[in-house]
Each structure stands twice: as C-alpha cells, then as structure tokens.
Amino acid sequence: MLDVVTMGEVMVQFNAVSNGPLRHVTYFEKHAAGAEANFAIGITRLGFKAGIITKIRDDEFGRYIINVLRSEGLDVSRIKFEPEAPNGVYFIQRNYPVPGKSSVLYYRKGSAASKLSSNDLDLDYVRNAKLFHLTGITPALSQSCKEASHEALKIASESGLTISFDTNIRLSLWSKDDARLTLLSMLKKANIVLTEPQDGEILFGTKNPREIAEKILHMGPEMVVVKLGEDGAAAYTKKISAMKPAFRVPIVDVIGAGDAFAAGFISSILRGLSLEEALEIGNAAGALVVTVRGDFENAPSLDDVKKFLAANRKEIGDLR
C-alpha cells in the first residue's frame, strides 16, 4: 500500500549552467521535474511510499523520466504512454533579469500529460493510499486534466483520504478568473492547503497570510500553510497558528523550493509532529533544494534534515 498518490505532469528540464539571458547560454543540464513529481520524490526521500499518475510519450525523454522516477523509489505503475503527443520540456533562466531569481520558459502545450483524463484514473490505486496530493497546475493543463482532477479529488474525499492541495497558480497556463473559479471549488475538498500571498491575492483579493488562511479555513480545510519565500512560512488551524523564518543559505536556483517545503511539511504532519516542527522541517527542505541546480536533487532524507537543523542551531548558538 502506498502512503501518498499524486497526479500531474513530469517534464524534462534544461537548466542553464551559466547565469543571464538564455540567448547567451550555451550549456544546459538536463533534469526531470514537475511540481507533483518533485513533491513525490521529496516525500519518498523522507521515508514514505509514493506513486504518481501521469502520461508521457514513449521516447528517449519519456524513458529518461521513467528511469529517474523509478530510481527515486516512486511507483510508476500508473504512468501511461501517450503516442500522439510530445513530452513537455522547459528551460530555466537564472539570475536574470532579477538577481537571485529564476524564470521559466515552458514548451508544454499539447503535451502527453495534458491528455490525461478521468479514464486514466485507477480508483483502487487512489483509494488505497493514505494521502492524495494535487496542485493547481494539473487542472490548468487542459479540460480533460481539470475533469480528472475533480474526479480524483472526489474519489479521495469519498474514500476518507487526507487531501493536500498546493494552489501553485501558473498564469502562463490559464487566466486569473479561470484559476479562481476552478481552484476555489477544489479547495473545499482539501484537508491541508498550501498557498502563497500571490495566489491568495488572485483567489481572495488579499496578500495577508492570516486573512488568506481564515478565508480558506472557513471553506472547510483543517489546516492552511502560507509559503512566504525568503520570510519562511506560516501555518494556521482554527485553534492555533505558527510561523517559522526561512534559513539563510547560498541560492543557486529557487525553482522547486516550494515543492520541497510541501514534502517536508506534509511528511511531518503525517508523522504527528507539531505545526512548528513541520514548518521548520519544510523550511529546511526548501533551503537545501535552492543550493543546487535542479528541482529535487538536493531534496533531503530525514537524516539530512536532522543534520542540517543541528548545524544551523550550532551556528546560531555560536553567534550568540
């Protein structure tokens, strides 16, 4: 039995080795990535069993994706092949035009994953897991992906699974109005919602973390986490709240940090840890990921997290 099942697109990432505009970049590193896959790999490294539902094309890139996911311990038995559509690819531009930030150029329209539909869902595969994780990216890929997302959430909810949902709004995929209309209905089925101020403004007209959390909690979810980037993260339930600052680390590539945080936070909640502990572990996972190129390469094990936190506490103690 799997602990976690997720559903979404896995792409091939080409990450610029040098900084600056892509027109001047000659060398790229190849990685496999995608928000849901990043999360699944992160939570697997933290000691849980995870599987992913998606579609890929059976070509060299598709085989690369399968090999990466399998090598990370993910269950790939529910990945289907789509012969008529390409695998999505994207390029990472680093430290330009804003130093310390990465930007993304996608080539994913009409991709194999966008052909995912309700017919590709294995009901028992979802029902037999403990947690179902979805992001706002998957329903934005196509109408059939939106329908599959609704159906998967319905199956998970009716089967009593814990549902975690990361809003992850990508305006390159759909409009603000479409995102708001779709995601607000999906959030009602979630137990744990992860979001950020920019998404909160689109969904609720406010960037205030507490106001965002209160509006989401009023819809039915039991827990809301607002990711605050370099300021850390805050978590809320109807009874308690907590906030933890981010760790200061050398930044190479920020893409994937939010997915690593989600894996660290949710794995901690599954272990029964407190909000403060879960936020700290999530922040540690996110901090480690941004220190290298690639979305999940530095996603930590639980032992790695403990070593990171111990070293960080020692440094703080030395400073005092």
N-end to C-end Cα span: 47 Å
The percentage helix is: 25-40%
CATH topology: UDP-N-acetylmuramoyl-L-alanine:D-glutamate ligase
How much beta, percentage-wise?
15-25%
Radius of gyration: 18 Å
The largest sheet is: 9 strands, mixed
Shape: globular
Label the structural class.
Answer: alpha/beta
Kindly give the count of domains: 1
The total beta strand count reads 13
Integer average pLDDT: 95
SSE string: EEEHEHEEEHEHEHEHHEEEHHH
Largest sheet, spatial ordering of strands: 5-4-1-8-9-10-11-12-13
> What CATH architecture would you give?
3-Layer(aba) Sandwich
CATH superfamily: Ribokinase
CATH class: Alpha Beta
Low-confidence stretches: none
Number of helices: 10
Describe the structure.
This protein is of the alpha/beta class. The protein has a single domain, classed as UDP-N-acetylmuramoyl-L-alanine:D-glutamate ligase (3-Layer(aba) Sandwich), CATH 3.40.1190.20. The protein contains 10 helices and 13 strands. The chain has helices spanning 35-45, 60-71, 123-127, 143-158, 176-187, 197-204, 209-219, 257-270, 275-289, 302-319, and strands at residues 4-7, 11-16, 28-33, 50-56, 79-81, 89-94, 102-107, 131-135, 162-166, 192-195, 223-227, 233-236, 241-244. The strands form 2 sheets. A 9-stranded mixed sheet has the order 5-4-1-8-9-10-11-12-13, sandwiched between helices. α5 links the parallel β9 (162-166) and β10. The longest helix is centred in the last third of the chain and has 18 residues, at 302-319. The radius of gyration is 18 Å and the shape is globular. It starts with a strand and ends with a helix. The mean pLDDT is 95.
